[in-house]
Amino acid sequence: MKGLILAAGLGTRLRPITSLRPKPIINVANRPLIHYAVENLLAADVREIGVVVSTDTQGDLQRTLAFFEDRASFTFVLQDPPKGLAHAVQVAQPFLGNDPFVMYLSDNLFEEGITSFVEAFQPERGVNAVLALVPVDDPRAFGVAEVHENRVTQLVEKPADPPSNLAVAGVYVFDASIHAALEGLEPGAKGEYQITDGIQRMIAAGGHVAAMRVSGWWKDTGTPEDILDANRLELLRLRRDVRGVVEDSRVVGDVVLEEGAVVRNSTVFGPALIGAGSVVEDAYVGPFTTLGDGVRIEDAEIEYAVVGARAVIRHVASRIQGSLIGVEVLVESAGRRPSTHQLTVGDKSQVVLAEP
Ligand code: G1P
User: Fold this and answer.
1) Beta pairing partners, 290
2) Which of 130, 53, 143, 128 is nearest to 92 (CA)?
3) Helices in the chain by DSSP H: which ranges?
4) Ligand 1, residues 18, 36, 103, 105: which to mutate, most atoms within 8 A of Cβ?
5) Which of 116, 195, 206, 267 has its CA 20 to 30 A from that of 329?
6) Could you give the domains of the chain?
7) Which sign, positive or negative, has the C-alpha torsion 99, 77, 169, 326?
8) Which of 117, 142, 226 to probe ligand 1 with, by most ligand atoms within 8 A of CB?
9) What is the average per-residue pLDDT within 47-56?
């Protein structure tokens, strides 16, 4: 079984966080998203992994995946420009050959990994593909499946009028029959070649597409709100581990304080993760907050937030909450007079101020 991680997308809904780096290397609980995908593939004993990249994302992805050098072998496949998930499978065909494979969308997180989907792929029972399904309140943003006796009978991409509440999560197992199903496929919305349409063709040709429920939580991280929520879910798995220095402070609950981090004259309520070399001083860090490496929080309050490496937040009177802050960002108060806001923010940034 091979793996195929799709990591060529631009992550436009996450700008400006993705303006300078591709979405798969955005950190959740201080690990790049794509690391979770690789760990889950390795846990399912999938070591030969194709990574579909674009010219813009290739360098960053090669660098971050060097972390797994001894445990996995990676083949980088260029998809330029990215024209959808079905197109990604087509450009990866020379790597995939006729082997069965797990296709993994690099922005999807699964609490309980993906082993159960790989195990449900049983070619000796005539199974051609496995889809991971999750009941959701509003399935209109996803591929939606209709299921009869554990078999997918119909599949539609982002339907206005969903036939069920079962969303397709971003891990798929296929045998080689998917390649024939993608031949001559017409593009769907936004000119993208949809894997959903390819799988629907597989079904129409008599293919056996098994339905498998996702157990545990699943998170598709398309938007800033999703990243905050994914961070919350990952932090709930933390156990207290204080390796940094705590001085005159309250550090309560499941808090990870990495090497060289300092908490001084402050309160930290877990779950929270404070990266190596960060300094929290005269400050409050509340639940569901991750600080990257080398962050400084001084004379400020923050909770339910993700802060990128080396960002500085100081002398801010109102509590910062529900915030996604990039790498090397500076947030500070200029003092009381003159009472002005002074902003240097990139394209597509959002600044929400607490005005009296
Ligand atoms: C893609 C698929 C969709 C699936 C979703 C899961 O959509 O096209 O069928 O439900 O991933 O994350 P995207 O999130 O790329 O819009």
Assistant:
1) 273, 306
2) 53
3) 33-43, 55-65, 85-91, 93-96, 115-120, 177-182, 195-204, 224-235
4) 105
5) 267
6) 2-222 (3.90.550.10), 238-353 (2.160.10.10)
7) positive
8) 142
9) 96
**Per-residue pLDDT at 3:** 98
> Which neighbouring-strand residues pair with 338?
none
Q: Is the pLDDT of residue 335 over 90?
A: no
**Residue 63 pLDDT exceeds 90:** yes
Distance (Å) of CA 244 to CA 273, 300, 305, 310, 324: 11, 20, 20, 17, 24
State the closest ligand 1 atom to the C-alpha of 143, by its place in the atom list counted from 1: 9
**One-character DSSP codes across 116-134:** HHHHH--GGGT--EEEEEE
The closest alpha carbon to 99, from 46, 175, 210, 44, belongs to 175
Q: Which two tokens stand for residue 29?
A: 């609980």
Measured from the Cα of 169, ligand 1's closest atom is: 6
Atom in ligand 1 nearest the alpha carbon of residue 167 = 10
- Predicted confidence (pLDDT) per residue in 290-322, tens digit: 999 999 999 999 999 999 999 999 999 899 999
